[in-house]
Amino acid sequence: MPSFDVISKINYQEFDNALANCLREIGNRYDFKGLHITIERKEKNVTTLAPDELKLKQVNELLQTHLIRRKVDPRVFDIKSSEGASGGAIRQTSELKEGISQENAKKIIADIKKKKLKIQIKIQGEELRVDGKKKDELQEAITAIKAIDIGLPIDFVNFRE
């Protein structure tokens, strides 16, 4: 019975490369000269330190640009609120989103059931397993899942016949 998995994962190597490229550009840009700006990732948290709100916004836009260049979907980057830090700077912590949550999985399953395809979808932790008798129905399911917007990048892996 053909099947495939629906996952949402981050390529951390590419994310770190985008972060390094962004820091390199910050060091070279004239409007950032002499300013103390840092971006660092620890596990699933990204901390950005900038002198003011305007520079913080520019750094976030620059990081998103570099993520797109490295083919990392910027939707994995969930920006939280900013707070004051020492020396009058502003610190912003962001979280990296990975995996399909239960509520998003249920939304996907409900939308696929409305299509009345002859497939079965099972929730397995933070991913979905889709089974069907025909490849054509699985391909229709892939197209339907791509059309659903859950705010995360979705990949299709482990296609088996």
Could you please describe the fold and organization of this structure?
This protein is of the alpha+beta class and 161 residues long. The chain has four helices and eight strands, in the order βαββαββαββαβ. It folds into two domains: 3-8 and 99-160, Alpha-Beta Plaits (2-Layer Sandwich), CATH 3.30.70.860; 12-96, Alpha-Beta Plaits. α1 (12-28) crosses α2 (53-69). The longest helix has 17 residues, at 12-28. It is elongated, with a radius of gyration of 20 Å.
Tell me the span between the first and last alpha carbons: 6 Å
Side by side, the strands of the main sheet go 6-7-1-8
Class per helix and strand makeup: alpha+beta
Please tell me the overall pLDDT. 88
Shape: elongated
The CATH superfamily name of the largest domain is: YajQ-like, domain 2
Beta strand %: 25-35%
Which features characterize this protein?
single chain, 161 residues, alpha+beta, Alpha-Beta Plaits, 2 domains, four-stranded antiparallel sheet, 30% strand, elongated
